[in-house]
Design brief:
alpha/beta; Rossmann fold; 15 helices; 13 strands; elongated
């Protein structure tokens, strides 16, 4: 098959959507398919090239004034490649692919990565809509997408090409007992709740240290909160780390306190490193933790309960070891090979059922619809 993946960029900045796309493109090229990534570019271009994936520059933006140039560039790419499948991972690419082509000869597959965004409903333009967890699939069905058009391919990161040839970097030895979180510095990641929980925890486990690995627009606010809570020396903001395995390997407890989380790749990574995990019971997190067998699930927005769960694990070495042992069981379901196989099967079924060579759209009407959708998405957008 000839496959084009669409995303806004290919930056190596910890964006889970981009990481999934890069893994998928590399694995599909490895399987012998002709794979192209069309994006605004970024740090992953060299990696894609090494794995036989073509990268073409296609800057994508939800700004209406940029729509004509994006559509023209996309049509040139499609004319040159003549793909069987276009796989859009973000809303802008989905709308361009659906409405910007005068005569569509490919099937369009869209993946809903961030269901919590209002603009995620736009992903319904795909001939097949893929959710990254059963929870996301159910949410999209509630939004009006027929179940018959939905598929589920749960995220996975084991065996990722992004780290296949990388040697885990040497880091300073972490202080113990330590809690590690790996998350973007966004309010929705529950960093504020975690800091309040950690402040309460330190009254009972005064030697505990918290490492916050990640970057984002709310970092300054979170650092200020840590200072206000008297945690300036004990909550250590490490910034973005491209290869976080050394942090995960040294963690006494890994925590993900998100308010919403469709299917965080970091949970696969934490399980692979044998972490004792505490995470919130939201979105696809229970699925990623085998319903609570592979990690402790707590309510979101609840620092008190979170602090209690962290204290219990930090003060109970045997319980912590048992939880870590359960985390590494049955990990094959989180392999990138399984993810790739799942999507390839969806492509084949969609091609068989849609007869895409007969598709045609009216370009002018389609572009107007794309512009309208992009304007709406800007007003309701949420940071990734």
């Amino acid at each position: 098959m000839k496959i084009i993946h669409l995303a806004n960029h290919a930056l190596n900045v910890g964006n889970g959507i981009v990481n999934v796309m890069v893994d998928l493109a590399c694995m599909q090229a490895r399987a012998g398919h002709d794979v192209t990534v069309a994006s605004g570019g970024g740090g992953f271009e060299e990696l894609l090239g090494r794995h036989g994936v073509r990268h073409v520059l296609l800057p994508q933006s939800p700004r209406p004034l940029r729509v004509p140039a994006m559509v023209a560039r996309f049509n040139r790419v499609v004319s040159q490649i003549d793909p069987d499948v276009v796989h859009a991972h973000m809303m802008t690419g989905a709308l361009i692919a659906r409405f910007g082509v005068p005569r569509r000869r490919f099937v369009l597959v869209t993946t809903v990565h961030n269901e919590f965004q209002k603009s995620a409903t736009m992903m319904r333009v795909g001939d097949r809509v893929v959710a990254v967890s059963e929870a996301v699939s159910a949410a999209m069905e509630r939004r009006g997408i027929p179940k018959s058009r939905l598929s589920v391919v749960r995220n996975g990161a084991l065996g990722t090409p992004r780290l296949a040839d990388a040697i885990a970097p040497r880091l300073p030895v972490l202080a113990h007992p330590c809690i590690v979180t790996l998350a973007g510095m966004y309010e929705r990641k529950g960093i504020r709740d975690l800091l309040h929980a950690f402040a309460a925890l330190r009254e009972r486990v005064p030697g505990a240290v918290l490492y916050l690995v990640g970057e984002g627009p709310d970092r300054n606010a979170m650092e200020q909160l840590a200072s206000q809570l008297g945690l300036a020396r004990h909550a250590r903001f490490e910034g973005f780390v491209a290869d976080p395995r050394a942090y995960l390997a040294q963690a006494d407890v890994f925590v993900l306190a998100s308010h919403n989380e469709p299917a965080g790749l970091v949970l696969c990574e934490a399980r692979e490193q044998g972490c004792a995990i505490v995470a919130t019971r939201v979105g696809g997190i229970p699925e990623m933790l085998d319903g609570g067998e592979a990690g402790v699930l707590v309510p979101p927005h609840d620092p008190v309960t979170l602090a209690t769960a962290l204290e219990r694990l930090l003060t109970d070495p045997a319980g912590r070891a048992g939880l870590a042992a359960r985390a590494v069981r049955d990990l094959e379901k989180f392999s990138v090979q399984r993810v790739s196989d799942g999507y390839l099967a969806i492509y084949e079924r969609t091609l068989a059922s849609c007869q895409p060579r007969r598709f045609a759209t009216i370009a002018t009407r389609g572009i107007d619809a794309a512009r309208a959708g992009m304007v709406e998405s800007v007003s309701h957008s949420t940071p990734l």
